[in-house]
Design a protein that fits this description.
11 helices, about 375 residues, nine-stranded parallel β-sheet, binds pyridoxal-5'-phosphate
Length: about 375
Amino acid sequence: MPSSWIEIDLAALRHNFDQARQRLPAETRIVGVVKSDAYGHGMVPVARELVACGAGFLAVSKFWEAQELRANGLSVPVLVLLGVEGGDMEEAVRQSVRPVIYRLDHARVLSRTAAKLGMRAPFHLKVDTGMGRLGVPWDRLEPFLDELLALEAIEMEGIMSHFSVADEGDKSFSHLQMERFRQALELLSRKGVSAPYVHMANSAGLLDLPAAHFQLVRPGIMLYGSPPSSELHHPPDLLPVMCFKSKVIQLKELPIGRFVGYGRTFVTVRPSRIVTIPVGYDDGYDRLLSNHAQLLIRGMRAPVVGRVSMSMITADVSHLPQIQEDEEVVLLGAQGDDRITAEELAGICGTISYEIYCNIGKNPFKYFFNASAEPE
Ligand SMILES: *Cc1c(COP(=O)(O)O)cnc(C)c1O
């Protein structure tokens, strides 16, 4: 039995997928974004469940993640959002993985490789409409397209862009990005090409910008049960999927005036009952949570007191006289009628739920519940 572990509720994942599905026209298909180990939730079991729910595509950041999906029997189209390097291109084509293209040299390798294999390789062209990160800048697309379209043995299965502020209340920049994207689509049709799959929407775009639905949408965070921000115009009804649990390894009664933890940042101001829990920043429990976070024990909240150390934390359960050693503790997720959300922890750390999930999700002990079908 590990000292801390993660429980993944696949029924909650299905609920969240349905929340996405309900907001989409029937012809719009869903790309399940499972990069970064499905935001820490476990890529392969999550991907299997999303495909069982009806996700038509999966998206990962890196080619090796796509290979892992294939090695585990997932055969749906997989997008590699960061693109595929030249050295991996042949394997990508063989495995029918779709590289996102934003560099001509990658496109040339893709073309040569596909021609050599006697295949036509699908790819998705990424247009930067204002995010300023990855993609061909929208105002420099034409010369890029001219060279791209001259290549043999490749076909533009998709054209995509990405929002930078779709989760903010003010949608004006997102509308500008959509306008630039539409110009890119017009340029494409002037060149006599069309991509069957046009896509732009992340979770925030899916929820708040119906005009960005097109043929595919790419939700990530909402599938895992968190809204992309608190500023949405149409907040969805989501269920968190991840629960992070541990156990009390020691309970001690301390008199008044005793210090707890590194740096002596906490001192008992009354006779206190302090529990020690084998979770620390090495387990993704951020050190910024020291003296600020709460956890759940017997369905009640208890404050984390003293510093978070590498593999331990301490909490004050003086108000809960019934607590004993070996008792289960919830650091993220629900217990009884209460819940610690990733938003709550993120607020304390000055970050976003995404990072909380990724960090806690590094825990190697994951248990999956409520799968719609038993894995073969
Ligand atoms: C991560 C990512 C998404 C998903 O974003 P969420 O905010 O988690 O919904 C969509 N598209 C791209 C290109 C991404 O990198």
